[in-house]
TrEMBL record:
Protein name: fructose-bisphosphatase
Segments forming domain Fructose-1-6-bisphosphatase class 1 C-terminal: 274-404
One GO location term (cellular component): cytosol
Catalytic EC class: hydrolase
Lineage: Eukaryota, Rhodophyta, Bangiophyceae, Galdieriales, Galdieriaceae
Amino acid sequence: MSPCWVTSSWVVAPHITRYYLLNRNRETKPYSHVSPIRTSILATITSQQDASSNGAGLFLPSQDSPTTLTRFVLENIRSSKAPEDIVDLISSIQFACKKIASLVSRAGITNLTGLFNEGKSINIQGEEQKKLDVLSNQVLKNALKYSGKMGVIASEEEDVPVTVDESFSGTYVAVFDPLDGSSNLDAAVATGTIFGIFKQEVSCLIEDMADNIEPSQLHCLASTLQPGSRLLAAGYCMYSSSTMMVLSLGHGTHGFTLDPEVGEFVLTHPYMKIPKRGQIYSFNEANYHQWDPVLQEYIENLKSGKNRSGKCYSLRYIGSLVADVHRTLLYGGVFGYPGDKKNPNGKLRLLYECAPMSYLIEQAGGKATNGKQRILDIVPNTTHERQPLILGSEEDVDELMHVYTKYAAKLQV
Ligand code: AHM
Ligand code: MG
């Protein structure tokens, strides 16, 4: 048989050739589609099952009973570390995250990359909305609405906080950025969902969504704005080489990885602890010339090793807050989106970006500040208020704060 014949058979009828090859493999090697590692695991399990079949015939290797996210939340409720309703809320959020993860991973195939409404749809912050920004917002809103526990929802993609239909209404406030870092989407770079949950302090009985809201009702919605220190729960879901949910219910920060084989988030990173000091800085250095001289000097010292640690730092910047914070949480160092000459308050939004991320970092032993004040102590004035954000390893953040304090003292002399 000539090589030409083989080539043309692929061109003329590739599906027939593929069918042949697949079936030939199946006939000769029944598990050839299973990796050698899995085959050997299967073999081990089978032999152990045989060995333990004298009793109930059950074999439960530890990975068969991992702590799922739901079990984790229920255990926290049982030990009074979380309110009962939180299980419904987290269950809605985890469903939404799975759905968004699937939408993100298939975006290139399903024509979900690119701008929504041909770029004519601009959100309240003046940014063009991507198709997946809009869709992810809808997915999260619906999931939370049907939890039956929500009163008000504030999202990066909504102009004002929206109330949930009266019939579904509960007493919690959810704040979220449905798809952070969406400018990275079309390049298949990591993105994420950020969320925070507060208890609603005043009840807002508003029957309709957004359109017919009276000034008094708006006041009521605005009164739901709370500082990060009052969060009952905060977390993010990262859509990357694996989908991860990192969550805090106020007792440590815990990481769950989505196991695609069973469709469940399982606890893989209990009690995450950020290193006391790292060796990475993560800032958009293209803004260097817009920064104040203190920050410029601090960054120069990290590069040259003229800092407290005496070590030269590396730069890592993905441009997706979730991914940059996730790496900082694991490897340590400092992440920042500071204010600059052009944008004195930086870019990141206090309520649904800075506060939940700072909560997670603090719960993992790190620090988060706007340069003057602890992020979690700042009471938002508006839903979409921006704040400079610097967070990370305790010693790294302290060093930057020390430089700022020294500089402020010098200016007063
Ligand atoms: P987004 O919420 O519109 O996606 O913007 C937030 C993102 C963050 O994920 C990231 O830290 C920052 O914007 C990147 O901004 P820049 O491109 O200016 O570095
Ligand atoms: Mg964002």
